Automatic annotation (TrEMBL):
It holds the Pfam family Abhydrolase_1. GO terms for molecular function: hydrolase activity. The keyword Protease does not apply. This is Alpha/beta fold hydrolase. PANTHER family: AB HYDROLASE-1 DOMAIN-CONTAINING PROTEIN, HYDROLASE, ALPHA/BETA FOLD FAMILY PROTEIN. Keywords: Hydrolase. InterPro entries: AB_hydrolase (IPR050471), AB_hydrolase_1 (IPR000073), AB_hydrolase_fold (IPR029058). The lineage of its organism: Bacteria, Bacillati, Actinomycetota, Actinomycetes, Micromonosporales. Gene3D superfamilies: alpha/beta hydrolase. It comes from Dactylosporangium vinaceum. Residues 26-264 form the AB hydrolase-1 domain.
Length: 284
C-alpha cells in the first residue's frame, strides 16, 4: 500500500511524496515528463519479490508539489534528501525514466554519501557538454520531440508558445510497440499524466527547460555504480544519449535493448531493480 505525504522545505515549498512502506531496501523513483511521482505500479510485483521499497515525490510544479520556476536538474538532490529524511531513510538507490533519468544521475553525483547505485532508462544527455564534444543532440529524434526541446533551448516564452501551438498530432517518437504497451502492461502511464497537469503545464515546462539547459553538475563526477538502459529504436530520446553518458560516467554499464522504444525500454525495469538490489544488499 502506497502512503502519500507532504514534505515542507526550508524555502516554504511543499513536495507531494510517496512511500510503498515496509522495511526493505529503498529505491528512490524519479518520474518522467509529464508525470506525477507515484511509484511505478507495473514494477510492484518485482519490487515485492526482491524485498524493495519505493520512495518518490512529484517534482515541483507537478500535482500538489509547489512550483519552482528556474529549477535545474541538480536542484532535485536537495528535495530528495528532504523526502528521505522525512521518511527516515539514510541510504538508497535511485532509478529514473525519461525526464527522470537525469534527475536520478544528479542524486548519484551530488548525494554520493547516500546514493548506493543509479539506473537511468531512456534518458537525455546534457546539451552543452555533449554538443561541445561534437555530439548531435537532436540526431535521430522525431520531429515533434526535437521541436519541443529546441523551443526549450530558446527559453520559457518560446516553450510556452510551442505548447500553445501544439495540435496533439505531432510525431513525438513513440513506436507502435510503445503505443501497445500504453494500452497493456504499461497502461499505468496514462493514469499519471492527467494529475501531473492538474495545475497547468508549469511542471512540464520547467522539466524541459532544465533538461535542455545547464544541468548544474557534470555526470563525469559520479562515483557510484550506474546502469543506463535504452531502447535501440527510441525516437523520442535516441539511444545515442545513453551511449554518450556511458562514455562520460566512469564505469557505467550500458544496455541497449533491441527492438525497444521509449516506453518499452521500461520492460527492463524488473532486471534493473535486481541489479540495484545487489548493491543495496552489499551496502547494508
Amino acid at each position: 500500500m502506497t502512503t502519500e505525504f507532504g514534505v515542507e522545505l526550508g524555502d516554504g515549498r511543499l513536495l507531494h511524496a510517496y512511500d510503498t512502506g515496509g522495511d526493505g531496501a529503498v529505491v528512490y523513483w524519479h518520474h518522467g515528463t509529464p508525470n506525477i511521482g507515484e511509484p511505478p505500479v507495473p514494477l510492484f510485483d518485482a519490487a515485492e519479490r526482491l524485498g524493495l521499497r519505493f520512495l518518490s515525490h512529484s517534482r515541483p510544479g507537478y500535482g500538489a508539489s509547489t512550483p519552482a520556476a528556474g529549477r535545474s536538474i541538480a536542484d532535485v538532490a536537495g528535495d530528495v534528501a528532504a523526502v528521505a529524511d522525512a521518511a527516515g531513510v539514510e541510504r538508497f538507490a535511485v532509478m529514473g525514466h525519461s525526464g527522470g533519468g537525469a534527475h536520478a544521475l544528479a542524486c548519484a553525483a551530488l548525494l554520493p554519501e547516500r546514493v548506493v547505485a543509479a539506473v537511468g532508462i531512456s534518458g537525455l544527455a546534457p546539451f552543452e557538454p555533449s554538443t561541445a564534444e561534437g555530439f548531435d543532440w537532436y540526431a535521430g529524434m522525431a520531429d515533434g520531440a526535437a521541436d519541443s526541446l529546441r523551443a526549450a533551448r530558446e527559453g520559457r516564452a518560446a516553450k510556452e508558445r510551442a505548447l500553445g501551438a501544439a495540435t496533439g498530432e505531432e510525431d513525438i517518437g513513440f513506436q507502435a510497440a510503445d503505443w501497445e504497451a500504453l494500452e497493456t502492461d504499461w497502461a499505468w502511464f496514462d493514469q499519471i499524466v492527467p494529475p501531473a497537469l492538474v495545475m497547468g503545464p508549469g511542471g512540464l515546462i520547467d522539466d524541459d527547460l532544465a533538461s535542455a539547459g545547464a544541468w548544474g553538475f557534470d555526470p563525469a563526477v559520479i562515483s557510484r555504480p550506474v546502469l543506463l538502459v535504452h531502447g535501440a529504436i527510441d525516437r523520442m530520446v535516441p539511444a545515442s544519449h545513453s551511449t554518450w553518458l556511458a562514455q562520460r560516467i566512469p564505469g557505467a554499464q550500458l544496455r541497449i535493448v533491441p527492438d525497444a522504444g521509449h516506453i518499452t525500454a521500461m520492460r527492463q525495469g524488473a532486471a534493473a531493480l535486481e541489479w540495484l538490489r545487489g548493491f543495496l544488499v552489499a551496502s547494508a
